[in-house]
Amino acid sequence: MDLAYLWFFIVGFFFIGYFVLDGFDFGVGMSLPFLGKDDTDRRVLINTIGPVWDMNETWLIVAGAAMFAAFPEWYASMFSGFYLALLLILVALILRGVSFEYRHQNKGVEWTKWFDRMIVVGSAVPSFLWGVAFANLIQGVPMDADHNFTGTLLTLLNPYGLLGGLTTLLLFFTHGVVFVSLKTEGDMRLRAQSLARKSGAAAVLVAAAFLGWTILQHLDSPHVWLIVTLALVAAVALIGSWLFNAVGREGLAFTAIALTIVFAVATILSALFPNVMPASNDPANGLTIENASSTPYTLNLMTWVAGISLPLIIGYQSWTYWVFRKRITRDTVLASSH
Questions:
Q1: 3-state DSSP: the chain helix, strand, coil percent, rounded to 5?
Q2: Residue 48 and residue 43: Cα distance in Å, rounded?
Q3: Residues of 215-225 as b/e, b for ≥16 C-beta within 10 angstroms?
Q4: Residue 321 pLDDT class (50, 70, 90 cuts)
Q5: Domain count, the chain
Q6: Over the stretch 25-58, which tens digit does the pLDDT of each residue have?
Q7: How far does the chain reach from its first CA to its final CA, in angstroms?
Q8: DSSP secondary structure, 107-142, as one string
Q9: Which of 230, 259, 311, 320 could bridge to 267 as Cys pair (CB 3.0-4.6 Å)?
Q10: According to DSSP H, which parts of 218-249 are helical?
Q11: Which residues contact 262 (CB under 8 A, 6 or more apart)?
């Protein structure tokens, strides 16, 4: 296989890892107003992701670095063209990270409430805008002959882009709420399961509409069969997650919704292939895997580095999740404050 095509899938793998792992982080953050009856409840929610949220975000850094090294043209066009949207995501992530650290300073109720609000906003904004960005990548954006994006933020907020944003928002929210049910006990677990049934039903409907629209846009694709297959697997996994949650099998529900995100992103990548940033105004202005990639020497060197480092990263992160696998309760949170 040509190394440029291999690295398209590797970059896709990094984004899949990011959306699966940081996706439930975002969902937990967005669930604070719905599941947090008091400060102790909110501390329980935050503690479910406390040991791992910052590690999950490193997948975005790795994905961006891999894109920069393997596909510099794609990186330059996307990060300059989607500058305002990506800046909003970055600001939201910074506010979210700061809020996790500063809300515990015990400087009063209003102090804590403000940082809780920033956690919610800092989780919801990236959840929505990532969906908008990737939906527009599939659909194509206006570009000039030098591969520069010629639209604005409003260009990205088209009906298909907004539907993509709503899809990721609901998927991540449900993903996070199911994670809460997996990591807590008692009343919090039951309320999380109830909330996941409601948000999961909405996610099924919206995701079905988005995946259906995506398929309709690519009926003339030579690999439309692959797009349809991946979309159907994602849909079945999402329905399965809802059913598992309904019968109280939160472990299977979490696994199923994680697979939903995996196959949903795989659907997006298959719809994009062999392009990386198609132009909606003139196909000749778009970027493909071949004309956006680095030199063979660079890709070869990166392949050796990835082959050595990636198993270590996955192993270390798996070990971390195993260490912090126990459920969080109100009693453990209250005990830790004394």
A1: 80, 5, 15
A2: 9
A3: beebeeeeeee
A4: confident
A5: 1
A6: 999 999 999 998 888 888 889 989 888 888 888 8
A7: 58
A8: --HHHHHHHHHHHHHHHHHHHHHHHHHHHHHHH-B-
A9: 230
A10: 224-246
A11: 16, 20, 234
Helix (H, G, I), strand (E, B) or coil at 174: helix
The token pair at 84 is: 């305002």
For 199-246, what is each residue's pLDDT tens digit?
999 999 999 999 999 988 888 888 889 999 999 999 999 999 999 999
- The alpha carbon dihedral of 213, 216, 218, 223 has a sign of positive
Q: Is residue 338 part of a domain?
A: no
Tokens 């600001």 sit on residue = 91
Do residues 181 and 192 make contact, with C-beta atoms less than 8 angstroms apart? yes
Given this model, what pLDDT does residue 335 score?
61
Q: Contact, 203 vs 216, CB < 8 A?
A: no
Q: Is residue 176 part of a domain?
A: yes
Q: How many CB atoms lie within 10 A of CB 301?
A: 13
Burial class (CB in 10 A: 0-12, 13-18, 19+), 270: buried
Domain housing 280 = 3-333
Model-level pTM greater than 0.70? yes
pLDDT tens, position by position, 85-118: 889 999 999 999 888 888 877 777 788 888 889 9
Residue 201 domain-assigned (yes or no): yes
